[in-house]
């Protein structure tokens, strides 16, 4: 049997010793994952990062003295992932994300993240690696490091309104992966859950970091614009298994290591070292296939390019330079009418379709009248 490494399985095995697990604790009790952060609340505060009230040592559940149910209360929201927590940077009230990990387990993550956040690359428009504000440790004797990043959202939330919005997303993803490869970094896990967007303009009043469909105090839905009105920038996150190669290493090979996408052809029945850059091409192509080509109507024109990116033989997949060139050709052939057409979920029922189509056309007429471009571009 091949001995392909499964990162998710490794993390699951380490969960008990590193992060704790979410057990059947009561809402007013912190689970073991949360206790780690609660116990470092003051240290993080002194460092300039304020956690939500739930993680203060003085926290008392708000629903005990209010008429709200704990499910509707802001401080009733647990962490989704024990190694990641939201916080507020006290110097400017900016919402941020704190991620903790053992440097010994992910020895290259901080270095690669900081490499792309360096002065040389931070402002480059083709750089779509998540910005990292700082990396620090709380205990000199501990191998755990904390990385500070902006608060982001999954790249497909909220839903895409138009084909043009999706095409701008694809363009940025291809551009970003091309930029990484140009600088000899293979992401090695750039599947859909590791693609995010900057919500700053889309959600000007922000949102709750756990219940992301709600506003910050969970009193109602989080209000947002469409991507056409407020174009976001998309980012790749999580460089835990990424690698950076010296330019002299022209043909790097890596033993297969499973990320979140379990469909990589070259990993299925072999543990032979393979090209990590070709695997990246598969990952991002498969993300678009799974989230758009298969789940949304109207993306048939992307099938030839996506099919070439996810073909079984990694040697036959295009390099990212070729992907970008071919994508530009596809984009040039699309009419403005096509670009302004609505993204239709294949699972929509008739009622949803009527409601969404009606609201879409109202927006569309307004955008055309105001001269809003069919392909939104984020501010540089």
Automatic annotation (TrEMBL):
Residues 70-380 form the Protein kinase domain. InterPro entries: Kinase-like_dom_sf, Prot_kinase_dom. Keywords: Kinase, Transferase. The keyword Iron does not apply. GO terms for molecular function: ATP binding; protein serine/threonine kinase activity. CDD domains: PKc. It comes from the Eukaryota. GO terms for biological process: mitotic DNA damage checkpoint signaling. GO terms for cellular component: cytoplasm; nucleus. This is Kinase-like domain-containing protein. It comes from Boletus edulis BED1.
């Amino acid at each position: 049997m091949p001995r392909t490494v499964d990162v998710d399985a490794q993390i699951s095995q380490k969960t008990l010793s590193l992060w704790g697990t979410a057990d059947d604790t009561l809402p007013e009790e912190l689970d073991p994952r949360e206790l780690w952060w609660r116990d470092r609340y003051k240290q993080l505060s002194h460092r300039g990062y304020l956690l939500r009230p739930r993680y203060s040592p003085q926290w008392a559940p708000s629903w005990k003295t209010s008429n709200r149910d704990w499910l509707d209360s802001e401080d009733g929201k647990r962490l989704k992932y024990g190694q990641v927590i939201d916080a507020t940077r006290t110097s400017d009230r900016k919402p941020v994300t704190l991620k903790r990990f053992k440097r010994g387990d992910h020895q290259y993550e901080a270095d690669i993240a900081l490499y792309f956040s360096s002065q040389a690359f931070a402002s480059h428009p083709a750089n779509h690696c998540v910005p990292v504000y700082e990396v620090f440790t709380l205990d000199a004797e501990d191998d755990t490091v904390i990385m500070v990043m902006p608060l982001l959202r999954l790249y497909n939330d909220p839903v895409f309104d138009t084909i043009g919005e999706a095409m701008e997303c694809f363009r940025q993803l291809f551009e970003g992966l091309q930029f990484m490869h140009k600088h000899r970094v293979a992401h090695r896990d750039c599947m859909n859950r590791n693609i995010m967007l900057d919500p700053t303009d889309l959600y000007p009043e922000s949102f709750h970091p756990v219940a992301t469909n709600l506003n910050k105090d969970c009193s109602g839905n989080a209000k947002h614009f469409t991507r056409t009105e407020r174009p976001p920038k998309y980012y790749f996150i999580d460089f835990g298994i990424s690698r950076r190669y010296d330019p002299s290493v022209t043909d790097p090979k890596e033993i297969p290591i499973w990320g979140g996408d379990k469909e990589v052809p070259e990993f299925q029945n072999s543990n032979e070292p393979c090209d990590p850059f070709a695997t990246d091409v598969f990952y991002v192509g498969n993300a678009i296939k799974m989230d758009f080509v298969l789940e949304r109507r109207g993306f048939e024109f992307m099938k030839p390019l996506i099919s070439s990116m996810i073909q079984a033989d990694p040697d036959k997949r295009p390099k990212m330079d070729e992907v970008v060139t071919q994508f530009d050709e596809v984009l040039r052939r699309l009419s403005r009418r096509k670009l302004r057409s609505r993204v239709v979920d294949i699972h929509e029922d008739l009622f949803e379709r009527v409601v969404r189509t009606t609201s879409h056309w109202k927006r569309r007429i307004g955008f055309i009248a105001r001269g809003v471009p069919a392909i939104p571009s984020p501010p540089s």
